[in-house]
Write a structure and sequence with these properties.
Helices cover 29% and strands 20% of the residues. The chain has 9 helices and 10 strands.
Length: 287
């Protein structure tokens, strides 16, 4: 799933290519991806892209005051084309194309989604706050207003595992499954640790690591073409998606805990005092 660094990089990519161009046409191939009807998607035609921004994991194109807001979900992506095919696209089948945006110079981009579980969402609104997911977002960890006291206030009294808390978009915007694994590994903290039990020193460490991890990922993604961002993200991850491999810090084997629709990865030596975390799903398989 694209998270804060990748969406920020996509926003920067589009600022350099789409801003200043008018929307010539929008093809909605997967009608289920379009979540709004007023204004209609045709309202964007003829208007000019004046800015591109990010709200958590939401990508926002300002088109003369009308906003095209996208959430790429688990398997969605933005694919830029210098020359967009003009022929109509037939919906249905295994076509991953959901929405195609044509700009006035012949360039544009596709919003695509792989797999059968569809979650990509596209909104056409007058104000990004009209998108429920945007309105409910917690503070952005790269915003200057996100201070140590902000994080301390978020964690205080919460009897919730820190891994789940970091992923909750209503608590902190933009961090998902991958970067929460990376943050907790860098902070040398168990993903099962209860948020309210963190000491002042641990909160301060976590605060510094959140900023460093996300800013480093944003820096590594800066200037890359949209098509190269996924590969860059994977290369930069130290523990997420690397179960069975050696921890780059201590050399221990990276372990995994599986859930119904996701999994987390961690290093026992770095994060849990050498003790593997309980993986009930795997335990059932081994019986």
């Amino acid at each position: 799933m694209p998270e804060l660094p990748e969406v920020e990089a996509l926003a920067e990519f589009l600022r350099g290519r789409a801003v200043g161009h008018a929307v010539a046409r929008i093809d909605v191939v997967a009608i289920s991806a379009l979540k709004t009807y007023d204004p209609p998607v045709t309202a964007l035609q003829g208007l000019t892209v004046t800015g591109v921004s990010r709200h958590g994991k939401f990508l926002d194109l300002d088109v003369d005051g009308v906003h095209l807001v996208t959430h790429l979900a688990r398997a969605g992506w933005l694919r830029w084309q210098d020359e967009v095919p003009t022929r109509p696209v037939r919906p249905g089948g295994k076509n991953p194309l959901a929405v195609r945006v044509h700009l006035d110079d012949g360039s544009g981009f596709d919003l695509t989604e792989a797999g059968t579980k569809k979650g990509l969402a596209v909104y056409v609104v007058r104000d990004p706050a009209e998108v429920p997911g945007v309105a409910a977002l917690g503070p952005d960890p790269l915003d200057d207003a996100f201070t140590l006291d902000t994080l301390r206030g978020i964690l205080g009294g919460r009897r919730t595992r820190i891994k789940g808390l970091l992923r909750d978009q209503k608590v902190i915007a933009g961090i998902g499954n991958a970067y929460s694994d990376e943050v907790l590994h860098a902070a040398r903290m168990s993903p099962f640790k209860i948020a309210a039990t963190l000491t002042d020193e641990e909160v301060a460490t976590l605060y510094e690591v959140i900023g460093e991890t996300l800013r480093d990922a944003v820096r590594r993604s800066a200037g890359l073409a949209a098509g190269d961002l996924k590969a860059e993200k994977k290369i930069g991850l130290r523990v997420h998606g690397r179960a069975g491999q050696k921890c780059p810090v201590c050399g221990d084997t990276i372990r995994e805990v599986s859930f119904a629709d996701s999994a987390l990865q961690y290093c026992p030596t770095c994060q849990t005092g050498g003790k593997p975390l309980a993986d009930r799903r795997m335990s059932r398989l081994l019986k």
